């Protein structure tokens, strides 16, 4: 008999815990789904779509809710009179506004007619997009831009799409835009003209609480695991741990999945709290690393600065101490030097993300109040990330 079999003592359907799994119903998001329906009812009525901005932390159901609602709209339109809806999805992660426009064009083209994401003037790409929309058989086209915050302040496309019909770029088709973001401050980077259009209607997805996570995990567990594999305390225990930290369903499901793998690898017949605890530690390390890697280079330089001071037993350190060392390091790796005020904001942001601890020191009437900063995140994870950051990790004089 070979090494692999289709017999699994733990999982009934492992796919039910995968990231791309779409449940039949989305629990604990009834209010948000109802808001979606209210806003998109204009499309069903044949009117112009209202633009929507959807935001919330990672793993709170934004993309899944959007996909389920638009799937329902696609099914229901079969009963509509003179209304046909086409949905175009693009994940903007690591893409420029120009590249996103190219991907939108390619969504209307056959595989052998795809255009390259470079080499054309921006106006030409937009013109191609308007032509495809006009040639579409659909009465309505909805563009969904997931991780829209990746576009930064390059918001020309976000202005052009919602106003294309008003500006006579297209003649018949009604178009709308749905932007999904986990960056609450992204809207502040947009120009006033885009904010007034793109953020016409907003849907805010709050983090899940423990009870809601229990509902979600129970739904997935019923499909994923064999009968009597989960001990009774596992789901409430997992939900409580995640609710305290992030309220992310994605994280909770990932922990439950890894707990199942650990139990299976150990040959255990039941998934217990001990398996969840081990899985939690594994997931937290991965989450912290992902969040660190997503930080801009200047934040990496600041973290390296505090790391260097920590290794010299000079933390907690005051802002002035950090800034003096930061300037030297930024010069070494040929980076622009931030102002003291900008560094202060960056330190506070890193504290809010729990990478640094900010402690207040009160010296009384003579010394006043000030803050000191030290590490909160695991130092070895930070070292791993900084090693992979090109300017820091490749500079031999900086011993990461």
TrEMBL record:
GO terms for biological process: DNA replication. Belongs to the CDC6/cdc18 family. SMART domains: AAA, Cdc6_C. InterPro entries: AAA+_ATPase, AAA_22, Cdc6_C, Cdc6_lid, ORC1/CDC6, Orc1/Cdc6_arc, P-loop_NTPase, WH-like_DNA-bd_sf. ATP binds at residues 60-64, 208, 220. Residues 303-386 form the Cdc6 C-terminal domain. This is ORC1-type DNA replication protein. Residues 48-209 form the AAA+ ATPase domain. Pfam families: AAA_22, Cdc6_lid, WHD_Cdc6. NCBIfam families: orc1/cdc6 family replication initiation protein. It comes from Haloquadratum walsbyi J07HQW2. GO terms for molecular function: ATP binding; ATP hydrolysis activity. Involved in regulation of DNA replication. Keywords: ATP-binding, DNA replication, Nucleotide-binding.
């Amino acid at each position: 008999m070979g090494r692999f079999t289709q017999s699994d003592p733990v999982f009934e359907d492992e796919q039910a815990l995968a990231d791309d799994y779409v449940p039949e119903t989305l629990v604990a998001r009834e209010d948000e789904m109802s808001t979606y329906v209210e806003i998109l009812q204009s499309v069903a009525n044949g009117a112009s779509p209202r633009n929507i901005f959807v935001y919330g932390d990672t793993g709170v159901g934004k993309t899944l809710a959007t996909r389920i609602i638009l799937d329902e709209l696609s099914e229901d339109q079969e009963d509509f009179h003179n209304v046909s809806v086409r949905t175009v999805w693009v994940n903007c992660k690591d893409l420029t506004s120009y590249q996103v426009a190219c991907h939108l064009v390619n969504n209307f083209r056959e595989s052998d007619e795809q255009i390259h994401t470079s080499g054309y003037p921006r106006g030409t790409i937009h013109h191609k997009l308007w032509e495809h929309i006009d040639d579409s058989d659909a009465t309505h086209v909805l563009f969904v831009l997931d991780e829209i915050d990746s576009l930064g302040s390059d918001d020309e496309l976000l202005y052009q799409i919602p106003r294309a019909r008003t500006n006579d770029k297209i003649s018949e088709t009604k178009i709308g835009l749905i932007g999904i973001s986990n960056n609450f401050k992204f809207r502040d980077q947009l120009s006033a003209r885009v904010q007034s259009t793109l953020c016409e209607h907003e849907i805010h997805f709050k983090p899940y609480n423990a009870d809601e996570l229990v509902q979600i995990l129970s739904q997935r567990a019923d499909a994923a695991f064999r009968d009597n594999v989960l001990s009774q305390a596992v789901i409430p225990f997992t939900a409580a741990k995640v609710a305290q930290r992030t309220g992310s369903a994605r994280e909770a499901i990932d922990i439950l999945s890894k707990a199942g793998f650990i139990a299976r690898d150990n040959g255990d017949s039941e998934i217990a709290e001990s398996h969840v605890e081990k899985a939690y530690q594994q997931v937290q390390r991965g989450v912290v690393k992902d969040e660190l890697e997503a930080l801009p280079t200047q934040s990496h330089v600041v973290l390296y600065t505090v790391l260097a001071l920590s290794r010299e037993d000079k933390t907690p350190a005051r802002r002035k101490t950090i800034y003096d060392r930061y300037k030297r390091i930024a010069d070494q790796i040929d980076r622009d030097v931030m102002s003291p005020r900008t560094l202060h904001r960056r330190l506070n942001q890193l504290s809010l993300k729990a990478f640094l601890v900010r402690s207040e020191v009160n010296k009384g009437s003579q010394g006043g109040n000030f803050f000191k900063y030290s590490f909160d995140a695991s130092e070895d994870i930070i070292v791993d990330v900084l090693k992979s950051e090109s300017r820091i990790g490749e500079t031999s004089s900086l011993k990461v």
